Amino acid sequence: MAHDHGHTEHKLAIFRGRLKFKSNVQKIWGVLIFLSIVTIVEVGLGIAKPSILVDNYFIGMKLLNWVFIVLTIVKAYYIAWDFMHLRDEKSSLRRAVVWTAVFLICYLIFILLQEGTYIEDVKANGFIKWNF
Amino acid sequence: MEATVSNTGTEGKVWGGGNKPLSASYGKMMMWFFILSDALTFSGFLAAYGFSRFKFIDSWPIADEVYNHFPGTHGDNPMYFVALMTFILIASSVTMVLAVDAGHHNDRKKTIFYMFLTIIGGAIFLGSQAWEWTNFIQGSYGALETEGGQILQFVDTKTTADDDKMYRVSVEDFATASHKERVQHEGKNGLWYVSEPALPTYSVQDVITGFNEHSTLAVRTQEIIPNVAALKASENPADVAKAERFEKMYINADHKGHKGILTRAESEKALKDAVTYVKGANLIHNEYGNRLFGDFFFFITGFHGFHVFSGVVINIIIFLNILLGTYDRRKNNYEMVEKVGLYWHFVDLVWVFVFTFFYLV
User: Chains A and B: how many Cβ contacts under 8 Å?
Assistant: First the structure.
């Protein structure tokens, strides 16, 4: 394997360069440990349901749900960047994939959740009998 | 990578397939295009789930109460099983990325070993999902459904000094199935062009009779108790009226975030609207609550499960190709393993979101 086609060069640092690994295999295990910790935190919060996170709201949603969504996106980031090697791809490929999805999904979610909230309001405060 | 791409004479040209701004092979780029479009499909499903959930925000089923089984145990074990499933899928993602890494080093034996582990992980995940579906379909308590699609569940209001939780009661524990006067009408024993669905185990009257014989039972509705104290203190008369309604109807009006449990008198009134007994779930009825809840569960986890299944099949094909030495002959550092790896990680990625929106949020 004298010539490796430039394939085995990986960016080995995560957390913005704060954590550097010696080899790609080591980085994979490191990311697994990180993802497992995040999942354990999620399940722990889901079972404990701390009242400070359940009783306080931010833009119509419980803080706890925001925490779950942020942690999910963190997990998605490391799966895409390190397992799917987006970190090692050209930034143009990375942006073509990621920004397309981010913009379209944000728009879709905004429209549908806005509409769902409106219908809920009509159901709760309008003159419609739905409980029979 | 260059080894498989034939020299087209377009190098250095801007048009006609020249230049490689993304420095990715054709196959890898197409896999990314596919993943992007599939991600949008799943987003559409999950956003639709969010729409229905926001529409029924005050009565949506509570996930912890629905998915509370763990193999080999009884009682209430919310979330542990799905957390385990998540871990299995992430672990199989790790073995896949290790296979890709081994492929890059042209290490055939290691690639075979890690691909094998990935296939096993996928199979275990599929088995777990089958178990999850079985529990969901069979149900555990049973409930009555009203004409308008409301679900009426049953709880025992008898509590002890050190445990004030009112536990769910299975309909089987208090109702007795009456003598069946009627056989199910099937196409083969009556009019051939008319048939009816399977008859429920209990008639509504059986359940009501059982309910009347047990004075500590009460009906639990789907409505989630809001912060009644805050509503009462509100300036808005509509809020005050709402708070009064909750205090009048429900015996647990002070338990914010719980499902409302009707007083005995209100329970008897609610039971008059019941039209059918429901146990477990299918695409039309489910004992957990809103009908859409069951539909979304089957559709989204089913679509994801189908992706996992396809992933396992594709992994097996690639695994056999590695055994046959196909990718050694291609001399491109096992790029095919990397491409199916992308798909496999994507399936894991989707599960991370399904896990959050179905089980956590």
Answer: 158
Do B269 and B148 reside in the same domain of the chain?
A: yes
Beta strands A61-62 and B151-156 are: unpaired
- What CA–CA distance (Å, rounded) separates B351 from B211? 41
The answer to whether residues A20 and A36 belong to one domain is: yes
- Could you tell me if residue B287 is inside a domain? no
Domain carrying residue B220: 143-279
Q: Quick: pLDDT tens for A83-130.
A: 999 999 999 999 999 999 999 999 999 999 999 999 998 888 877 666
Q: Which residues of A touch B349 (CB under 8 A)?
A: 76, 79-80, 84
ipTM value, please give it: 0.90
Task: Of A54, A110, A127, give the one whose Cα is nearest residue B224.
Answer: A54
Q: How near does any CA of chain B get to the CA of A17, in Å?
A: 21
- The answer to whether position B7 is within a domain reads no
**Tokens standing for residue B239:** 């809020």
Asked if A77 and A109 sit in the same domain, the reply is no
* Contact predicate A53/A41, CB 8 Å: no
The CA-based dihedral angle spanning residues B249, B255, B259, B265, taken in that order and rounded to the nearest 10 degrees: -20
Residue finishing a domain among B232, B248, B279: B279
What are the two backbone dihedrals, phi and then psi, of residue B62, each rounded to the nearest 5 degrees? -90, 120
Is the predicted pLDDT of residue B286 greater than 70, yes or no?
yes
